[in-house]
Amino acid sequence: MMPRLFRRMARFRLAFGLLSVLCLSVGSIASADERLRARLNDVNGVRSDVWIYNDIATAIAKARKVNKPLFVTFRCVPCKDCAAFDADVANGNERVRQFAKERFVSVRQVEMKGVDLSVFEFDFDLNWAAVFIHPDGTVYARYGTQSARGPDAYNSIDGLLHTMRRVLRLHAEYPANKAELEGKRPKRPRGQTALELPGMKNAEKLARQTTRSNCVHCHMIHDAMHFHAQQTGTFTRDLLWKYPLPENVGLEIDPDHGLRIERVLPDSPAAAAGLKAGDEVVRMNGQRMASIADMQWVMHHLPNGPTTLVVETARGSMHRLALERGWKETDISWRGSLWSVSPRLRVWTPILAYDRRKQLGIPDSNTALLVKWINRGAPGGRAAFESGLREGDVIVELDGRPLQNVDPARFNMLIKLNYEIGDRLPLTVLRRGRRIRVEVRLVE
């Protein structure tokens, strides 16, 4: 009797143990998303009924089974820009929620370290972006545009919904339309990830657990490209002119529609080619368009020198835009990746408060930058200090010209575009009531 009881108890303990292990495993899997959300403080990543959280591989497998396109949003959670738009898309707007849940397999991706860059490439200086793909990796469309006008000047719920509807049409037509989609896929080694990029700094540290302070931000992919080009001597300023806007060729696109021309700028390549307000762009250089970001993708891959852009409209007209040297160049001060480009000053210069500018007699039409901190732990900061710059100085002129509409980002851009390592940066500063000229050696 007793041995039989012991055997039953042993079997019960074994079964209970296996059940406990299973429950722990399931609990660990189920709580992995919650732990990542908590580490990132991702307050918008809560709609688990809509979004697969940070797991593109699972989404692709599901999309194959149900034959739906993937809607993958990329969000840099710690960044403030685009936070409102992200909240609206992720868990606020009912039209997006219904579409994302019923017509797509939808993913909220909040880190870049394991993302296949041979499929998912976009303007990595964005803080929010979307890529729509077929389960086989064919890219249907991109959505998300940013500029010096602000992070959400081109993003809207209506614009996103229009793009989603166009993607559904492309998916219904696939693969008969494959030829006009081929150019949308990046030309990268298959399976390449951010941590494998040759210029990615601190890759070993970044490969560890993702936190707000240990995350591969999207812009770091552009940074890696800059670092690698600078290290190998292949860097040119043309690398800075990324994802030009349609305005660069003379097209103002209605952001709520995404393809309709709102205005053609006078004396522009678009005007010379005969494009009109009200025209709807269907293709650029043979690629099917679904958004402003799609237009930027085509233009991004054209040279900054003389080239041609072919625009086809919904009324069947073809327009050849003749582009001249420098057509890509625009205000890039908003780009986070610009800070990785040499020369690097390593000085923190916030805008001086208005009241303080008044005290110093600085005209209302001018701005001024306060030298708040000099990073003497870096070569650029040490050189700035050794050149005579001091914390507390107020920068009022660059190369003898007063600062007008110059914030820290624009100041940084002017340095990158006009000076090189080995040059001296001529600054006029106010220090204890005196105007002093300081020529900062640029060393890194």
Give your account of this protein's structure:
There is one protein chain. With 444 residues, this protein is of the alpha+beta class. The chain has 3 domains: 51-230, Glutaredoxin (3-Layer(aba) Sandwich); 246-323, Pdz3 Domain, CATH 2.30.42.10; 342-441, PDZ domain (Pdz3 Domain), CATH 2.30.42. It contains 12 helices and 18 strands. It has helices at residues 2-40, 56-66, 83-92, 94-102, 157-173, 203-206, 219-232, 269-272, 292-300, 354-359, 379-386, 408-418; strands at 51-53, 70-75, 105-109, 128-133, 139-143, 251-253, 261-264, 281-284, 287-288, 307-313, 318-323, 347-348, 369-370, 373-374, 394-398, 401-402, 424-431, 434-441. Strands 1-3-2-4-5 form a 5-stranded mixed β-sheet, with helices on both faces. Strands 13, 15, 16, 17 and 18 form a 5-stranded antiparallel β-sheet that branches. The longest helix has 39 residues, at 2-40. The radius of gyration is 26 Å and the shape is globular. It starts with a helix and ends with a strand.
What secondary-structure arrangement, pairings included, does this model have?
Blueprint: H1 2-40, E1 51-53, H2 56-66, E2 70-75, H3 83-92, H4 94-102, E3 105-109, E4 128-133, E5 139-143, H5 157-173, H6 203-206, H7 219-232, E6 251-253, E7 261-264, H8 269-272, E8 281-284, E9 287-288, H9 292-300, E10 307-313, E11 318-323, E12 347-348, H10 354-359, E13 369-370, E14 373-374, H11 379-386, E15 394-398, E16 401-402, H12 408-418, E17 424-431, E18 434-441
Parallel strand pairs: 1-3, 2-3
Antiparallel strand pairs: 2-4, 4-5, 6-7, 8-9, 8-10, 10-11, 12-14, 13-15, 15-16, 15-17, 17-18
